[in-house]
Amino acid sequence: TLAGKQLQSLHRAQHPPAFYRNILVSSCRTGSWVGEIDHRLASGDVVAHLVRVTTIRREDESVRYLVIMLQGATSGRQLSLSTEWLANRDVLTGLPNRNLAIQRIETAITTADAPKQVGVVVINIDDFKPINDSLGHVYGDELLKAFGLRLIRCGLGSENVARLGGDEFCVLIPHLTSQDDALQVVTRIRQLEQQSYDLDAGFEVYVSVCMGVAIYPQHGDSALQLLNNADTALHEAKRAGRDSVCYYHNDMTLAAASRLELISQLRVALQNGSGLRLFYQPQVDAITGQLVGLEALIRWQHPADGLLLPDRFLGSAHDAGLMPDIDRFALQQTARQIFHWRSKGLLVVPVAVNISQQSFVAGNLLEQLQSLVGLFGLQPGDIELELTEGALLEPTPQVLTLISAINDLGIGLVIDDFGTGYSSLGYLHRFPLQKLKIDRSFVSGVEDAGDSQVITRTIVKMAQELGFGLVAEGVENARQADFLSRSGCVVHQGFWYDQALEPESVEGMLQALPSESLPE
């Protein structure tokens, strides 16, 4: 057995002790090391072993033990083959890597006889990063290996499955007679979602995937073009949401180029602080008609396209990882605006600012808020953070500590679009929430007796039982307002009351508030 032995004892020492120490340091720092170690045979000949060292860690991230895998002794031609294997294989899964995938797609294209077609499916595991972060990289790697193995075992063949990097895989369909054949492959891959992954730690994980599909010759005449177009289709699928499939079409390339240009222009706007503006939509007490809150809504004064609403650019900003920068801008502008209103002697009502999950994960949200509180003299209740239910983080000790610290600053947490996400209702009582916002999709349906009325009443009752405040968004007519008020939700937001207003228009509403409401 090799268990417990020193690394250098596995070979007749052909390297200095520092060589082995560097291997151990690299393995512990990065999680793995791959390379060749020389070994002297009994005959005196020196050959090379291909060695992979993997670090297995405990829950506290300390090193538990090292796993060492050795490929048989090599020399000459065998050593060349080992180097070739490393150049064309993903070390974690043993699957072909991007380089070999391109070669095999190219071969399939050049050997395809008309009217035969070649299909490429690029696959991305939904929400892999949260799984990886919560369970740890060791179990994330285990999931990737298991997923790759299932792709092979569902009939796709080891020669047709590749790992492109991260949680992105590729499937080659070398002999297509019609798009129905591609659909059959997509269906087989989606059936994998019905089976859980039992990881060694005892965790049972279900995953869904997004897929992009491109077909030769319609969508490209080279392997690289076909793979790039399948990747473009994958990005469209991810924009549509979890568990989505998208087939490439030529307009996607133009759309992708347009998005890249938009993202570039948005980066400039964020760096220069020009063009981005905040408007504020009133939240009104339906009984008294009095302003009780505001929601800050971002707009972009685009140099060529005029004033853009969020749906024109926030999706691209999210894909480009720009949401923390946009959230930072919105928080700073809101804090500055509150300071300005208060300096003019106006009553300040709570202002809700939408915050993305990316900002929570980025790690410096608390520091940003502490700085704004000190710089602008924010008072408890001035700002509320709105987070969508779908982006609600699992209530780990770290997340709860962060939210508690934010709450201690006097900044509340509001769950936006409530009822449309997929978070566990069991989480709600664990978060120090201030309010729930009833999604506009339910509000728009309450005029007709049916599910929307039942769901809305249920949300109202649940919020009352848990002691949460309530806001209904998207209220557009008197019938909706009346039903909500009779159901127990009296704070409304929507066009029935007002659109999003520029700060100067809001000042008039603040001035109209009863003077006795001003703080002493």
Task: Describe the structure in your own words.
The structure is a single chain. With 520 residues, the chain is α/β, with parallel strands linked by helices. Helix content is 42%, strand content 24%. The protein is built from 17 helices and 19 strands. The N and C termini lie far apart (79 Å). The model has no long low-confidence stretch (mean pLDDT 82).
Structural features:
520 residues; 17 helices; 42% helix; globular
Topology:
Blueprint: H1 17-30, E1 32-40, E2 46-57, E3 63-74, H2 77-88, H3 98-111, E4 117-125, H4 128-135, H5 137-156, E5 161-165, E6 168-176, H6 179-191, E7 197-198, E8 204-205, E9 209-216, H7 223-240, E10 245-247, H8 251-272, E11 276-285, E12 291-302, E13 306-308, H9 314-319, H10 323-343, E14 351-354, H11 357-362, H12 365-376, E15 383-388, H13 397-408, E16 412-418, E17 435-438, H14 440-443, H15 451-466, E18 469-473, H16 478-487, E19 491-493, H17 503-511
Parallel strand pairs: 9-10, 12-14, 14-15, 15-16, 16-17, 17-18, 18-19
Antiparallel strand pairs: 1-2, 2-3, 4-6, 4-9, 5-6, 7-8, 11-12, 11-19, 12-13
Helix pairs in contact: 4-5, 10-12
